[in-house]
Amino acid sequence: MCRLDNKVSIVTGSTRGIGKDISLEIARRGAKVVISGRDLARAEEVKGEIENKGGKAIVIPADVSKSEEAQNLINKTLEIWDQIDILVNNAGITKDNLIMRMPETDWDEVINVNLKGTFNCIKSVTRQMMKQRSGRIINITSVVGLMGNPGQSNYAASKAGIVGLTKSIARELSSRNITCNAIAPGYIETEMTKKLDQKIKEALKERIPLGRLGQGKDVAKLAAFLASEDASYITGQVFNVDGGMLIA
Amino acid sequence: MSLEDKVKEIIVDKLGVSEEKVTPEAHFIEDLGADSLDTVELVMAFEDEFNVEIPDDDAQQIATVKSAVDYLNKKLKEAE
């Protein structure tokens, strides 16, 4: 198991779902974790869970779609822990609808949280990581961003945008020993996918070669690897954790 | 240490060039081998050292050692 001892990490949207699982996993490997999100009570719960297992965590609330809050998240982290080794851009929302029925506000909101939020956090952390001459940026995209999905044009567009963002950042910052990769989860059992219609879920399962939905920890283990020293020669890549859904 | 000397020190440190090369006319990219990220880093280092904020439009004007010194002199006077 690759260790992340004393690595300072920020995981956005870590109050639930995949973000929570990533936080627990990297904390288990020794990282100090900033729990962040819009739901303060749940953030405190995740912090408590980490501390109960002997890990270190703090809570810094942030709505990353707002640039000043993203900047504040980075600044506060530096005030407390002096450095930032790992940034996991996980915060994401869905507002599903067919394109003909999709209100402009639903388009904007999803793009603002998922894509712009990722941009905001990367932009704010770059200065510090450039100074350190090291850093790991991990963006959570989605299988949907790579293959499209009816009813999720806003979500898919935001996640496809993250792929382009990831590759560009990887090229821009590689000379400073900062890597940037993306993970594209398939259907993972979280509150987000719980909202899906039962029939759709059954149909989806049939499209997964491994025959089951994934778990948050399946994604978290890859995130922990990408954050570690063992992944120092990997940048600009998109990794699918999807039970084989996207086997070409 | 004068402002000019401090600026030179930062350039030597950030770009890893020898002191003799850092003449007033030296251009960061053409003469001192900086890439575009280096120039951003230089500006960030100036901001930190002299406690000023350098807007992007201004930053693009800072391309040589002299232009950096002149700009920072002006900026610090304004702040007084």
Features:
heterodimer, A: 248 residues, alpha/beta, Rossmann fold, 9 helices, 7 strands, globular, B: 80 residues, mainly alpha, Non-ribosomal Peptide Synthetase Peptidyl Carrier Protein, Chain A, 0% strand
Folded structure, characterized:
The complex is a heterodimer of chains A (248) and B (80). By secondary structure, chain A is an alpha/beta fold. Chain A has one domain (8-241): NAD(P)-binding Rossmann-like Domain (Rossmann fold). Chain A has helices at residues 17-28, 40-52, 67-81, 104-132, 143-147, 153-173, 191-194, 198-206, 216-227, and strands spanning 8-11, 32-35, 56-59, 86-89, 135-140, 178-185, 238-241. In chain A, strands 3-2-1-4-5-6-7 form a seven-stranded parallel beta sheet, sandwiched between helices. In chain A, β4 (86-89), α4 and β5 (135-140) form a beta-alpha-beta unit. Chain B is mainly α and 80 residues long. Chain B is built from four helices and no strands. Chain B is globular. In chain B, α1 (3-15) packs antiparallel against α2 (36-50) and α1 (3-15) packs across α4 (65-79). Chain B has helices at 3-15, 36-50, 56-59, 65-79. Chain B has one domain: Non-ribosomal Peptide Synthetase Peptidyl Carrier Protein, Chain A (Orthogonal Bundle), CATH 1.10.1200. Chains A and B meet through α4 of A and α2 of B.
Could you give a short description of this structure?
The complex is a heterodimer of chains A (248) and B (80). Chain A has 9 helices and 7 strands, in the order βαβαβαβαβααβαααβ.
Number of domains of chain A: 1
- Number of DSSP strand runs of chain B: 0
- For CATH, the homologous superfamily of chain B is named as ACP-like
Mean pLDDT of chain B: 93
Q: What value does the average pLDDT of chain A take?
A: 96
Strand content of chain A: 5-15%
Spatial strand arrangement across the major sheet of chain A = 3-2-1-4-5-6-7
Q: Nearest-angstrom radius of gyration of chain A? A: 17 Å
Most extensive contact: A-B, 7 and 4 residues
Q: In CATH, what is the class of chain B?
A: Mainly Alpha
Largest sheet of chain A: 7 strands, parallel
Helix share bin of chain A: 40-55%
> How far is it from the N-terminal to the C-terminal residue of chain B, by CA?
19 Å
Compute the number of helices of chain B.
4
Low-confidence stretches of chain B: none
Number of strands of chain A: 7
